[in-house]
DNA sequence: CGCATATCAGTAGGACTGAAATCA
DNA sequence: CTGATTTCAGTCGTACTGATATGC
């Protein structure tokens, strides 16, 4: 009995939906983060690149909203991506408070690869389930999100 | 268009099971943490109290395994609970490296209240689902955990 | 000696807060 | 003056790593 602990949780905790949710979520996160990390990108950076590609040139505040990031965190993500020339940052002449962030070709190319990696991670995660079960899971999660306000900031 | 952002994520991200899982997990975590926090207890402290009640007097290393905590974090959790006299710490005469951690009556009493709070949080979380759907969700999560190794440390 | 225990210090990632400077 | 934008400097939670002192 040295280290063969099955990542135990107390009895009463193991039964909790919130506990299992946490375990599955962590697994999902690890699968995605491992693949993104192999491309040198964090989850936040991926979301930012995706939001930028979908919305076109945007201010950082817009990107924060569209990518689901905090504005303070957008700053770091942008400068990190900037260093790799995955996007451009320029002042907005019409509103000198703003930066205009634009995708570069390299950014779009990388994004395509990241999309594929993320999709792979989803398949890895859901491998244990058949098609019907995957639909069930997504449906149940959607129902929870809808009835819970979807927007987690409320409350 | 000031702050009515629906906690947006990019299109391609919204579809991801891992994304929804993250949102639901966060909701679950917040519901549980809010109720535990009202009793002045963190999730780790709850798991520790639960493990202690279920296993009886234990060393900190045993508690770490049984509660699913890191040994380094057990130290802080124990001393925090100790200050509130929710448990006792004593040296083990048979092995002077060890501490023997024991529940106090106050600890057990609080634990009962915490169990009720946590159960309430589960009900809040699952309120949008009917009985059958809750069973489905738990079943799907269990299948994922089983086929994924259950123990998250593998990998 | 090798191994276990408790402890402390420090790291890393994620989400967030508060304040400042700048400007519409 | 009000309010938006960017930025910096912290905080908080969680999880983990590494080193140390002690004792088996």
Your description of this structure?
The structure is a homodimer. With about 160 residues, the first copy, chain A, is mostly helical. Helix content of chain A is about 65%, strand content about 5%. In chain A, strands 1-2 form a two-stranded antiparallel sheet. In chain A, helix 3 packs across helix 6 and helix 4 packs across helix 5. The N terminus of chain A is likely disordered. At the A-B interface, helix 1, helix 2, helix 3, helix 4 and helix 6 of A face helix 1, helix 2, helix 3, helix 4 and helix 6 of B. The structure holds a DNA duplex (24 and 24 nucleotides).
Assess the beta-strand content of chain A as a share of residues: 5-15%
Low-confidence stretches of chain A: 1-6
Overall average residue pLDDT of chain A: 92
Radius of gyration of chain A, taken over Cα atoms and rounded to an integer in Å? 19 Å
- Outline the biggest β-sheet of chain A: 2 strands, antiparallel
Characteristics:
mainly alpha, 64% helix, homodimer, DNA-binding, 2 strands, elongated, disordered N terminus, two-stranded antiparallel sheet, 155 residues
Q: What does this entry show, briefly?
A:
The structure is a homodimer of 155-residue chains. With 155 residues, chain A is mostly helical.
Topology:
2 copies of one chain form a homodimer.
Chain A: H1 11-14, H2 17-38, H3 43-55, H4 60-67, H5 71-83, E1 87-91, E2 99-103, H6 105-126, H7 131-147
Antiparallel strand pairs in A: 1-2
Helix pairs in contact in A: 2-6, 3-4, 3-6, 4-5
Chain B binds a DNA duplex (24 and 24 nucleotides) through helix 5.
